[in-house]
Amino acid sequence: MRTTEEASAHSGSDAAAPSPRRPRTLLVMSPGLLDDVFPPPVRARLEETADLLAPFVISEFDSPEAAEALGGAEVLLTGWGCPPVDAALLDRTPALRAVIHAAGTVKTFLSPVAFDRGIVVSSAAAANAVPVAEFTLAAIIMGAKRVFPLAGLFRSRRTHRTGADLDRQHWLGTHGLTIGVVGASRIGRRVIELLRVLDAEVLLYDPYVDRAEAELLGVTPTDLDTLVATSDVVTVHAPDTPETRGIIDARRIGLMRPGTLLVNTARGRLVDTEALTGHLVSGRLDAVLDVTSPEPLPHGHPLWDLPNVFLTPHLAGAQGNEVGRLGALAVEELARYARGTPFDHPVHRADLGRIA
Fold first, then answer.
1. How much is the average pLDDT of 207-214?
2. To bridge 219 with a disulfide, which of 14, 63, 202, 268 should be the other Cys (CB 3.0-4.6 Å)?
């Protein structure tokens, strides 16, 4: 069990911070991701900051080499492919004081018991929010311009669009939009920031955001029914929790006005895919869906071939050279830990019920 003094040393205590040191750190993630997560400048910063335990990276906890490293690890620097960090594993890591996740959510692998044992936790979810928000902004702009159905016509006919093609759209253009943001998550807040480049009114539904905070964000708070019924674009950024599953249900989809664009870069289970399908097949609504339920959709599902639906393979989050942002954030958090200062991106147990 971690003592109170140990737990507070890295959680915002007013005590004087110790001099920087090199915490004993074990990397736990899929080895094939190493170069993407830690490109050369980030790798150099990591090696300056920590005493990296051998083997340099592991993706399992059962081998003798892993067991030896775990016994001396003060920090687990984790990523995609990390096995469960549960009570049994924590019993084998008596020196462990921190888990720093160079990816998004920690809920997929980290047991809440870690918080009970005084372990401090950080996540790079804020860095992963950047490409998702950028993707969302692009989806909103291209969706509002009806790029996807009009590009399909252009590709098939090999000729310029006609006035009739434009007239068939419910509406077209980015000027004066009302955009409804569902969820002021890290990604939702980043989307709100990026939407300032548009001439748009932004509505927000988030039960955890009061009117004063909404004013600071520059959005109009509203209930979800009003948001879906009055927005030209509805973009979903809530976490997948028991309370949010199916939050965009058949009734709320029915409240959307003809021509509404639905963008989902969150999780497929937040939207009733089958209820949505009928409205997309009829052409009443448009959608950009980076996620669906199920994921992927079955072969032969109508959404694969609709001109007003743009499906992408869950790629809005960090990909390719974007992944290095996650490693850079995680290494900076490790440096803060080494200095004895609080994380900039902590994860608290109280947040687990309402984060992704």
1. 97
2. 202
pLDDT over threshold 80, residue 346: yes
Same domain, 135 and 209: yes
Look at residue 162 in the predicted model and tell me its pLDDT: 85
**CB within 8 A of 167, min separation 6: which ones?**
none
Residue 9 phi, psi (nearest 5):
-60, -25
- 181: phi then psi, degrees, rounded to nearest 5: -105, 120
Model confidence over 161-187: pLDDT tens digits? 888 888 889 999 999 999 999 999 999
| Residue 173 sits in the same domain as residue 295 | yes
User: DSSP secondary structure string, 34-94?
Assistant: HHHHS-HHHHHHHHHH-EEEEEEEES-S-SHHHHHHHHH-SEEEE-TTPPPB-HHHHHT-T
- Model confidence pTM above 0.85: yes
Tell whether the model's pLDDT for residue 8 goes beyond 60.
Answer: no
My answer on whether 42 and 159 are in the same domain is no
SS3 for 304? helix
Q: Which domain holds residue 156?
A: 129-307
Q: How far apart are CA 314 and CA 296, in angstroms?
A: 9
Task: Please state the φ and ψ torsions of residue 145, each to the nearest 5 degrees.
Answer: -80, 0
Catalytically active residues, by annotation: 267, 295, 314
- 52 and 110 assigned to the same domain: yes
